[in-house]
Amino acid sequence: MRKELIKKIPLSISEPLKIKKKIGKEVSIAIAEAVAQCKVDVISAYPITPQTHIVEHLAELVNNGELDAEYIPVESEHAAMSACIGASATSARTFTSTSSQGLLLMYENLFIASALRLPIVMVIVNRSISAPISIWNDHSDVMTMRDSGWITTFAENGQEAVDLIYHAYRVAEKALLPVALNIDGFTLSHVIEPIELLDQELVDKYVPPLRMKYKLDPKNPITMGAIGVPEIYTEAKKAQDEALKASYRIIVNAWKEFEKLTGRRYQPVETYQMEDAEVALLIMGSLAETAMNAVDLLRKKGKKAGLIRLRLWRPFPLKDFLKAIGKIKALGVIDRAVSHGSTGGPVGIEVRSALYQSNKRPKVINFIAGLGQRDVTVEDFIELFERTYEAINKKPKFSYEIYGVME
Amino acid sequence: MPKDQGLISWKKLAPGMFILEPGNSIKFKTGDWKAFRPILNKEKCIKCGLCYVFCPDLCYKKDEEGYYISNSYYCKGCGICAQICPRGAITMILEEA
Fold first, then answer.
1. Domains in chain B: how many in total?
2. Which residues form the 4Fe-4S ferredoxin-type domain (chain B) (predicted)?
């Protein structure tokens, strides 16, 4: 775990905080165990690299009788999401997980899950998109569902992935919205990390049984997914949009409650060395930890470098973001997906749009890096910091740049 | 042309635009955009009920004499009943504005 997190554990709280031994676990396995601790009723999934270990382990737990859940081995991801929608509509706690092409195959159903306000939890093990075929990690898959109305969070390491599973269920079921938790393929999913799972009694407290007010029930029939004629569609979408915006409070409060239970603190926008920073990089996902090392090195040389990490991507935490940028002069936004023919990567576009709503605007330079798991090392981050420094005085010639490409 | 307006405030919609009252689609008027409407010639009609069976909007109902009569509240004027009628007892006439 990171230094800053260890510092923040309030040792004065003896109960219910229980410091346990961390156990070395593959992150995918730990995620599956956390899902099982949340006592899911239905798991519906189709295997795809690099997500497979999560649902494979859940299948084992169900098969061994360790988890009392219905495991539906569907014929495709489209069916996986359909089954989750059907199960969730009956007030069953549901889980699925996918990657890359699998996410794209369930695409149309993603929008239905959120519009029907179904608290489905999905782990997206981020992987690039074909063609060329690539099983390796970047954020191309999740960025395609940017506008789907799902609450979307990112984990940077195995412990965060596990903690955000508990959080996802708590948030989804309070907000009545689906949650997509993102972990980087391979760099997170397939590594073994020291991970602490919560005690079952704490999980039970944090994720109480799901009781949905409106559900499919033969005794009390309702209609879900009725036609939205022109006289009602706009109102339906407005209501959905307001629900997603209102989920922000629920998300933040759930993290505060989690901190009380465990001492581990999560925020919509995480910062590192931002208090007096002049220049910062912004990134999401596991590469943030590499970037922190670059910040440490630059700090040793006396450079006031900082790092901003978006933990919450949807709903976009505008106020937290504007607060986090402080007084920096330049911000280097690192995207891990291409928005072909656009004015930037998906995150770059978002950040520029967010800054337009503020009077304090640092210079923004947008890089696309780490596509298809191309290495982005500490040295690369230092170079990206240097490029961001240059942007203070010199306007970049490009609106975005694919970094590290061989000419 | 009349402009479409919202039917209900977004604040009053149930989550997910669920419809909480079962069977309330019976209130939904689908018959207000038809260009043609079916007219039954009772002299030709043999009360076979094919119009009732084939009507996609379920708007035919048997009356006391056994004739099937369409309900213009639901009828969209598709003309399937007129096509299917084995005796040519149903004709579609232009709906007057």
1. 1
2. 36-65, 66-95
Is the Cβ–Cβ distance between A241 and A249 less than 8 Å?
no
Cis bond before residue A391 (omega within 30° of 0): no
Lowest mean pLDDT among A107-111, A349-353, B20-24: B20-24
Closest chain A residue to B9, measured at CA:
A235
In a domain, residue B30? The reply is: no
Q: Which chain B residue has its CA at the smallest distance from A176's CA?
A: B15
The answer on pLDDT for A136 being more than 50 is yes
Contact assignment for B16 to A242 by CB distance below 8 Å? no
Determine the Cα–Cα distance for residues A188 and A139; give it in Å rounded to an integer.
Answer: 13
The answer to whether the CB atoms of A239 and B7 lie below 8 A apart is no
B22 and A CB contact within 8 Å: yes
Token pair in block for residue A294: 């670059």
Q: What pLDDT was estimated at residue A20?
A: 65
Residue numbers in A near B25 (CB within 8 A): 226
CB-based contact (8 Å) between B66 and chain A? no
Domain ranges of chain A: 3-262, 269-402
Q: Does an H or E element contain A241, and which?
A: helix A233-262
Rounded distance, CA A365 to CA A130, Å?
A: 27
Residues of chain A with C-beta less than 8 angstroms from the C-beta of B17: 115, 226, 228, 232, 236, 239
A250 touches chain B (CB under 8 A): no
Identify whether B7 is part of a domain: no
Domain membership flag for residue B60: yes
* pLDDT tens column, A115-128: 999 999 999 999 99
> Does domain A3-262 match CATH 3.40.50.970?
yes
Within this chain, domains A3-262 and A269-402 share the same CATH topology: yes
In a domain, B83, yes or no: yes
Report which residue type is found at A272.
Y
- Please tell me the total number of residues recorded for chain A in this structure: 407
Looking at residue B73, which CATH number applies to its domain? 3.30.70.20
Cβ separation B16–A234 shorter than 8 A: no
Residues in chain A with CB shorter than 8 Å from the CB of B9 are 235
CA A184 to chain centre: 10
Where is A98: in which H helix or E strand?
A: strand A94-98
Taking the Cβ of residue B7 and every Cβ of chain A, the question of whether any pair is shorter than 8 Å is answered with: yes
Q: What confidence tens digit (pLDDT) does each residue in A305-318 have? A: 999 999 999 999 99
Q: B32 and chain A: CB distance < 8 Å anywhere?
A: no
Residues A269-402, CATH architecture: 3-Layer(aba) Sandwich (3.40)
| Owning domain of residue B86 | 36-97
Chain A hits for B11, Cβ within 8 Å? 239
What element of type H or E holds A318?
helix A318-324
pLDDT tens figures, A57-79:
999 999 999 999 999 999 999 99
